[in-house]
Design goal:
45% of the residues lie in helices and 12% in strands. The chain is an alpha/beta fold. It has 2 domains: 91 residues, no CATH class; 251 residues, Aldolase class I (TIM Barrel), CATH 3.20.20.70. It has an 8-stranded parallel β-sheet with strand order 3-10-9-8-7-6-5-4. The chain is globular. It binds flavin mononucleotide. Flavin mononucleotide (FMN) binds next to loops.
Length: 380
């Protein structure tokens, strides 16, 4: 059971509708036909609670955030990318990425990156020893420090090496191996289908695809037609990722691609409630409005408390939490002034007071005005 720092049970805080203006509850009801049509998602021996997955995000997908996302109803929430070499050499910092509460995360997915089959296999074994029930291979990271070692999106340029990595991992561990790929290295080399076939043959249990090239980084828009092409090419589940910010986006990606699951990254930054909405849409329930006032404050305080407990060192944790506060306060009236105030605090009490005052006292703009909450508007 999760508890809020203010003594209120987290679950109760999440359920309580008392702080919600009534128009918020009814204005967000939306048809979710396509999402509801996705059959149960099977990955290896596991059937996910829902085919809704948090994208692995470095610096974000830490245990406290993953737990919140799972609590909101996601089927999976993988770790951020973890270095295979770091696991191999038992680097303390690398191993800290594997820390989790097995009760809260019964289906831990650890994403690892590396370019060599042998070290990736040993790293997979270490991840499994630490509690991973699935291991995901990062084949999308565009960062030079990663790609120049042959890892991340560099693996897209060498499907045979990627397949050899899968085979080596499968020889060493029996948990399902999945992969997260991009559409290719650059515009001229968009080989996701070739890579998908090679990975399937080597035995991956599912593939998530972010259909942008390495060259694109995060610019332009995700080419969902590539997701459909991959769905049509392989027999294993394909998880659609890229530019899913709303329930409407999720319905559209399912309709346009026939994907077997959806993965949300930036849409969940400062807005874990997108997962709650997607879960409701998938279940055929009315969409809950993102909370305002006290409920929003409780949730953020809970996140802060869990974040500090996870990191141990209070000041370091507070500094790291600032990015979440930036995201949580985006699109909110007086958000800028709040961010300026909260960024300088170095005491937990002062930060908590700011959160209570700001999130507990102000209303989120636009929620009650627009029929569908659109994170892109809020971010803009
Ligand atoms: C802050 C941040 C960190 C990321 N870290 C990772 C990572 O560790 N592993 C990975 O496979 N992708 C990583 N990504 C990429 C996301 O998983 C996802 O593919 C990408 O953001 C597109 O999805 P979106 O449009 O829903 O955000 C990261 C993205 C962001 C924004």
């Amino acid at each position: 059971m999760l508890y809020s720092p203010m003594g209120m049970r987290f679950r109760e805080a999440m359920r309580s509708k008392s702080a919600l203006p009534p128009q918020c509850v009814t204005s967000l009801v939306q048809k979710a036909v396509e999402l509801q049509r996705i059959p149960p998602l099977l990955i290896g021996p596991y059937t996910l609670r829902r085919p809704i997955i948090l994208a692995p995000m470095a610096g974000v997908s830490e245990a406290p955030f993953r737990e919140i996302i799972l609590h909101m109803g996601a089927g999976l929430a993988p770790t951020e990318l973890v270095s295979a070499k770091g696991l191999l050499y038992k680097n303390a910092r690398t191993e800290s990425y594997l820390r989790h509460n097995a009760e809260a995360e019964p289906l831990l997915v650890v994403q690892i990156f590396g370019g060599e089959a042998s070290s990736m296999a040993v790293a997979a074994e270490r991840a499994v020893e630490a509690g991973a029930k699935m291991v995901d291979i990062n084949m999308g990271c565009p960062v030079k420090k990663v790609t120049r070692t042959g890892a991340g999106s560099a693996l897209m340029t060498d499907p045979q090496r990627a397949a050899a990595i899968v085979s080596a991992m499968r020889e060493r561990v029996s948990v399902p191996i999945t992969a997260k790929i991009r559409s290719g290295w650059d515009k001229e080399h968009q080989n996701a289908l070739e890579v998908g076939r090679a990975l399937e043959e080597a035995g991956v249990a599912a593939i998530a695809i972010h259909p942008r090239t390495r060259q694109q980084g995060y610019s332009g828009s995700a080419d969902w037609s590539m997701i459909k092409a991959l769905v049509d090419t392989v027999q294993i589940p394909v998880i659609a990722n890229g530019d899913i910010f709303t329930v409407a986006d999720a319905n559209r990606v399912v309709r346009e691609t026939g994907c077997h699951g959806i993965m949300v990254g930036r849409g969940a930054l400062g807005n874990p409630w997108i997962i709650e909405q997607l879960a409701a849409a998938y279940d055929g329930r009315p969409l809950p409005a993102p909370p305002v006032g006290a409920r929003r404050a409780y949730m953020i305080l809970h996140h802060l408390e869990a974040h500090i407990a996870h990191h141990g060192h209070e000041l370091r944790a507070l500094k790291k939490f600032r990015q979440h506060l930036i995201w949580y306060s985006r699109g909110m009236r007086d958000g800028h002034a709040f961010r300026e105030r909260v960024m300088v605090h170095e005491s937990r009490t002062a930060v908590e007071e700011e959160i209570k005052r700001f999130f507990g006292g102000v209303q989120v703009q636009n929620f009650s005005e627009s029929p569908i909450y659109d994170e892109r508007t809020a971010l803009g």
